[in-house]
Amino acid sequence: MKKIVLPKEYSYVSAFLTMRCNLSCSFCLNAFDKDFDRKGFEEISGEQWIDALNRLELGPGVPVTFCGGEPFLHKDFIPIINGIKPELDIDILTNLQWGKKGIERFAENVRPERVKRNSPYASIRVSYHPEQMGDGKKLVEDVKFLKDRGYSIGIWSVMYPSSEQLAAINQMQFRCLDAGVEFRLKEFTGRFKEDDYGDYTRYPGSTFQSDEHLRACVCKTSELLMGPNGDVYRCHRDLFAAELPVGNVGDPNFDIDTRYRSCNKYGQCHPCDVKLKTNHKQQLGHTSVDIQGVK
Question: Would you place residue 291 in the very low, low, confident or very high pLDDT band (cuts 50, 70, 90)?
């Protein structure tokens, strides 16, 4: 199959190995659509992922990010990591709720150097969710276990504006500091008690709107988003809804099309696509999509 060359303007590549998750956080961005069904996504095998990802030719500093759902739940998670070509850098977004045996199996079978790159942040980014993980003491122990074995790993937590979440995060910062584990905060993206969180000023009215307020536009992405069955999507909204794929990385003739595409869903864009955020170099002012001609 021919190579898939990442356009220069693309800054992010994500492989959603599965949408299944072993947690059920109340503010999960996967479930932005109320009809989201984690178990309704077809999943391709590890061998198919390896064949597809090995076609990628990525620019400097752009890794393949394994995410989900919880990517560890894919039965071939470790074989995929070890099977893709070494030229591909790897990032992992995980909750690390793998159990003692799962963490030990990862450490026994994946070299720390395979998941480490020259980056301003950790390659394995572990999410801390107080409502599902309690005080996080066990999480810190598990992260430290991998850190002490040479893995590039840290803990991140979303500043969901509930008093319980913020209080737990405050305590977690001290716990990580004492353990020598990196801890970072991420801005909450979404809606809480009728207030919108995130900076959407570049594309006003692009998200959190009802059906009667939808508008038409043209847009294009700067991210390669691959769903669990290998389908490629133009945005996170389409990905999580499993609608309107623009191709499949398993198709021998697949190539990345950078043209603007028509859309009639402006108003229900996924917050991750339209909020101002940092790019893969941690530079602020980036949006995942470029939208024009809103009508």
Answer: very high
Q: Does domain 4-197+223-259 have CATH number 3.30.1330.10?
A: no
Task: Give the residue from 120, 119, 122 showing the smallest Cα distance to 92.
Answer: 122
Question: What pTM did the predictor assign?
Answer: 0.94
* d(C-alpha 180, C-alpha 139), whole Å: 13
Domain boundaries, the chain: 4-197+223-259
What's the whole-number mean pLDDT along residues 233-253? 95
Token digits for 205? 């009215």
* Residue among 108, 190, 112, 185 at smallest CA distance from 152: 112
Greater confidence (28 vs 175) lies with 175
Distance CA 37, CA 59 (A): 34
**C-alpha span between 133 and 288 (Å, rounded):** 30
Q: What is the pLDDT of residues 179-199, one digit of tens each?
A: 999 999 998 988 888 888 889
